[in-house]
Write a structure and sequence with these properties.
Elements lengths: L1 H72 L1
Amino acid sequence: MNIQLAMALISLAGTGLGTFGGILTSAKLTSYRLEQLEKKVDKHNSFAERIPVLEQKQKVSEHRIEDLERKFEK
């Protein structure tokens, strides 16, 4: 009976360690992937902030071109 109990305890410990190791590995992978997604979102946000500035500059440039065209048409 003692050998069976020892084997059961060893199996329990191995299963527990394996499960705990799997959980830790999964958590690390999830954390890494979240960090990568956050980096992509930060890049996207900085790009989204620059778009309105570029649109405004384009409008100003278009108005300047129209003014120059009118000036040279006369």
